[in-house]
Amino acid sequence: MTAKETVSGAQHHPILKLLDPSSVPKHVAIIMDGNGRWATARGLARIEGHKAGIEAVRRAVKASSEAGVSCLTLYAFSIENWKRPKYEVDALFRLLNGFLKAELSTLIENKVKFRTIGRLEDLPAKSRKLLRDVKEKTKDGEWTLTLALSYGGRSEIADACDALVREARGKEAGRITEADVAKHLYAPDLPDPDLLIRTSGEHRISNFLLWQIAYAEMVILDVLWPDFAEEDFYEALLDYQRRERRYGGVPQAVTSGNREGEE
Asked: Domains (ranges, CATH) in the chain?
């Protein structure tokens, strides 16, 4: 189903009718932040915030599908997150395993191709097996959901450079181009994100997709991730559609307007 067909045909939220189907971002990436603060504010253990965050993931996936977004990438677990207490890390991967088991049939039914990026060799063996199983069973999906797990933007670039060095051994040295690096990233076939959403109101990118978001539009939401609703996703898309993407150039009004006085 195309973005145009999805937006025009969906009746689930009135904001969808305000979206321009021709300019829905192809790839949306989300930094899901605020689970711990959500739980603390309610006097709950941090893991309860992560449990509530799972429901927000489901809402984000549903909203992405209904809006016609082709690729959704979620920052689920960073390399830095390994510094957290072991009991919390173990609980996070139990939640991940439960999510994968519970959602497999839904992913298949909704034609979602499930993928992952990151240093997956760091993950528990059970999680790696489940991830491989879900990826294999959804490989024929029509739109892509990617989870970033044990992921770091700097690590991804370092891993790409390492792969380049190993590939170049025995070959004549030459200048490394951006294209060379890009094709050795974790998912080189995915388009760069058009839109990066961050929840919790924090204004930083937290080592996420450093290479890929060079020209992504950013939307910062004050909502904590467990409270993230489909409406928040659609509002972010509307914000994106109101912007003019220039990729380092000048506004269209300048290039097409009066240039009197220019030499």
From this structure: 3-168+180-242 (3.40.1180.10)
